[in-house]
Inverse folding.
C-alpha cells in the first residue's frame, strides 16, 4: 500500500491529508482478499444484546436477549485479559451516576462468568427486575456497598447475608464511548 501526503491543507486546519493512495487504508469484515481473511481471523464478534444497564434509577429487564448487532474484538486482547468470548456480551449504559467512569450511551463489555463480587469493581446487577451498572465495595462487618462513581449519587450498604435480592449478572471489563 502506498500512501503519500500532500501539502498542508487549509480545509483541515493545516493538517496534511491523503493525496494519493493505492488500495484502501481499511477493508470491511466481508472483504474477500486473502490478506484481509487473515486479519478477520484475528477478531471475534461479540454480540450486542438489547439490554440497558442503568447508571441511575434502574432499567427494565427485557424478556429475552435479542442480539441487535456485534462488535469485533482482537482475539489476542481477549486472551491477554483472560476473557472467553463465549461468555461475553455488550450492553448499553444509560444515565450519569457512574460518570466519569461510564457515561450515558457508553457500550459495556460484560463478562458473564464473573458473578462473584470483587472489591472496587463494576458489575451489572439486577435488583427488583431492574438492571444497574454499579461499583461494589466491601466494608467491615460483612457489608456490601453498592456505589456510583458520581459523587452526587448516593451509595447504599447491605449485609452480604441479606443480599439475596441482588443478582450479579457479570463484571464490566471494558467501556466504549463517543468522544
Amino acid at each position: 500500500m502506498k500512501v503519500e501526503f500532500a501539502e498542508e491543507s487549509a480545509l483541515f486546519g493545516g493538517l496534511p491529508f491523503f493525496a494519493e493512495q493505492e488500495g484502501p487504508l481499511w477493508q470491511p469484515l466481508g472483504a474477500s482478499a486473502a490478506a484481509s481473511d487473515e486479519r478477520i481471523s484475528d477478531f471475534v464478534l461479540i454480540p450486542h444484546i438489547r439490554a440497558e444497564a442503568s447508571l441511575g434509577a434502574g432499567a427494565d429487564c427485557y424478556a429475552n436477549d435479542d442480539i441487535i448487532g456485534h462488535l469485533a474484538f482482537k482475539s489476542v486482547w481477549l486472551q491477554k485479559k483472560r476473557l472467553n468470548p463465549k461468555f461475553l456480551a455488550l450492553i448499553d449504559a444509560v444515565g450519569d451516576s457512574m460518570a466519569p467512569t461510564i457515561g450515558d450511551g457508553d457500550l459495556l463489555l460484560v463478562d458473564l462468568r464473573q458473578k462473584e463480587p470483587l472489591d472496587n469493581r463494576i458489575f451489572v446487577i439486577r435488583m427488583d427486575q431492574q438492571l444497574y451498572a454499579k461499583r461494589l465495595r466491601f466494608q467491615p462487618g460483612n457489608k456490601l456497598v453498592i456505589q456510583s462513581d458520581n459523587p452526587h449519587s448516593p451509595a447504599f450498604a447491605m449485609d452480604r447475608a441479606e443480599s439475596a435480592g441482588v443478582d450479579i449478572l457479570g463484571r464490566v471489563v471494558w467501556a466504549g464511548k463517543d468522544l
Observations:
- Residues 1-27 have pLDDT under 50 and may be disordered.
- The first strand starts at residue 2 and ends at 5.
- The chain has two helices and twelve strands.
